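Hi support team,

I submitted a single chain yesterday and got back a structure, but I'm not sure I'm reading the token output correctly. Could someone confirm the output below corresponds to the sequence I sent? I've pasted both exactly as they appear in my results page.

Thanks,
R.
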Amino acid sequence: MNPHSTVHSLRRRACAALLVPALGLGTAVVAAPVAGADEAAATAATAAATEIATIPGDADFFALPDATDTAAADLASLAPGTPLKQRSVPARINNLGDMPVTMTQIQYRTTTVTGEPTVAVTSVLQPPVGVQRTGDTVMYASFYDSMNPEDGPSRVLARGAQSGMLDYAEAAFVTPLLAAGHTVVMPDIQGERGVFAVGREYGQIILDGLRASRDTPAAGVAADSKTALTGYSGGSIGTGWAGIIADDYAPDIARNIVGVAEGGVMVRPEHNLAYAGEGAKWSGVVGMALTGMAAAYGDDLSPYLTDLGKKVVAQMVGVKIDDAENTYDHLRWEELFRPEYPTPDDVPPIRAVLDDTNMGLAPVPSYPYYIGQSGGGADQQKTPVHPTLGDGDGVMLLGDTRGLAQYYCDAGTTVQYEEYPPIGHTYAGPYWATQMVPWVNARFAGQAAPSTCGSVPAGNSLTD
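Hi R., thanks for writing in. Yes, this is the structure output for that exact sequence:
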């Protein structure tokens, strides 16, 4: 067993121990007789959706369309978000007590960042019996951060969490949303290809997962369900990009979005590579990002890489974040790329991907935003303060999130931007959740979104 994985799991247990009382949760959501059926949600799907194949077994449910059969050819003819398979299984969320949650899982058609048809899976969790349903939907994007689809939330929820992630931290994020009566949609944001840090593809998977949920009667999601997008860390990549592209990619979903809550945000990946690469804890994640981005965009980096760079890319194929952390003391551009390519501008495929994943170069979303970010990276995560980019939480930069908030504010978006105590990236997640839950509940209640525009500190440039 990787000792760093054990440490990461213990940290998540500690986070949850702090988070559960902070959110006012006990050890379980107590079951009671069913108060009544949600008939509105049951009538939301299209007639075609009633023909979705029900596939109970893991192997057959997660099986991908065979490139040699008609299913693969048919995939391209289907609209993004079309459900392909469904099943209803118990959601096995351990270590938070008994929580009788019904879960519908859906495999559906979505689109890669390069425009090719592909498939993804989402899990739709309904409130426990006895909890009055609001009819509202929260998309929660997990920070599972793995290029192996076997680590995705759909598998973990179905088999019983074993990694420590959903057992402790993220289960405690989702539980109060279910207890409030909301439906929670948890897509496997890295897809069945196992991409990493590719915001546009994450966002398309999320939006198509919401479409599939609405078009699957068993999921119980109404076509007009008010929807909030939420996610922290790796989940914030998908959440933020789903908000950015929703109007153009999925206007049918966009019309019902009431707000976006994200924390620990990767705004301009070029800056994260320079900042996070300086510390042992997060430098391996820099290698994951380079590997995952190149694979998603179909780029071969080998002509540009040093021997160390080639070794890093080979090591990062199919890994999860626990295995990448604390692998290298640091990973710097000049260590990974040959001397004739001294900057990202000298590697055309890298330059193109970094620009395509920069939120500061993307359209401004119109929905209210809650953005939370901590500092403390030097003390808590051992990532030095960058000489020009400044401090961050160890992997994400304060200056970049400030810049994003100001960019949105300047365009007229309502933004509540909050900086947390200097507690580092790991412990800021639970703190973010304590702010996210009431913010989401207030949006569903129709309350006006608060704004801190006008008091956002000066941030980093997102374009220069």
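A quick pointer for reading it: DSSP finds 18 helices and ten strands in the chain. Let us know if anything else looks off.

Best,
Support desk
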